[in-house]
Amino acid sequence: MYFYIVFGTIALLFLLVKGMFLCFIPQSKLPTFFERSFRYIPPAVLSALVAPAILYTRSAGGFDISPVKIAAGTIAFGVALKTRSILATIASGMMLLWLLTYLVG
To answer: Is pLDDT larger for residue 53 or for residue 25?
Structure first.
């Protein structure tokens, strides 16, 4: 329990320090460079969270590459580019993952 309290306190302090400059700068005075670059933060964070889960799978010997997950992720990425729908992307990716896992074994 002590670990979680310390970890949470440190996380809040880092958030406070790193986000402080955004709180006190008015929206109209934020440079256009920052406004344009903030649009790329959500896709970058999402890809950083999803890519390791697709590329590597945990096994008894460590981490292995999973061709089934790579194939399902690649096809889901194509669906995302074509449809621009989150629901269609998630549904197609999960259905393909289950189907390929069933077929490959």
So the answer is: 53
The answer to whether 96 and 78 have CB atoms below 8 angstroms apart is no
- Is pLDDT of 22 > 80? no
Instruction: Count the Cβ atoms, other than its own, within 10 Å of residue 22.
Output: 11
Residue 62 pairs in a beta bridge with 59
Structure tokens at 96: 């393909």
Q: In this structure, are strands 56-59 and 62-65 parallel, antiparallel, or unpaired?
A: antiparallel
Residues in Cβ contact with 92 at an 8 Å cutoff, skipping those fewer than 6 apart: 75, 76, 79
**Is 72 in contact with 44 (CB distance < 8 Å)?**
no
Q: Spell out the domain ranges in the chain.
A: 1-39, 46-105
pLDDT (average), residues 69-83: 92
Distance, CA of 99 to CA of 103 (rounded, Å)? 6
Amino acid at 59: S
The structure's pTM equals: 0.60
